[in-house]
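Q: What would this chain look like folded?
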Amino acid sequence: MENSFAFVSLLGSLKSTKRRGWVLRDVKEPESIADHMYRMAMLAFTIDTSKCNVNREHCAKMALVHDLAESIVGDIAPCDNVPKAEKHRREMDAMNTIQSLLPKDAGEDVMALFEEYEAGVSDDACLVKDLDKFDMIMQAYEYEKADGRPG
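A: My prediction, written as structure tokens:
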């Protein structure tokens, strides 16, 4: 029960942690990490599979997991100048912690989804990476529109 509470608390932190790139750009009311993950999951879940060879449900799960490590390490932005290998190490440590909080089968599934996303080799992972970029572009457009100015 204690592990379940700790996991739910980590999920809660994703709801309150604002995406760092938007904070650094002084966006009013920037989206949270959870906001970003949710829209990505919905995009993946509703993708037209007649035009691409992907598993919608698998992609939606991957989208929900892809930034889960940020519940521990935070949203590391490129301007933080953290080397790629160090960022990966921190995120893997975080994912190992998260995996330890979950039932064995769920933990293994979460870790496998995260590793698949990070490797970026499968068709599903490539799609989710593209959705990550698309969501960022769409979010920037929405902020520009709301503020009445280009970014």
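The two ends are 46 Å apart (CA to CA).
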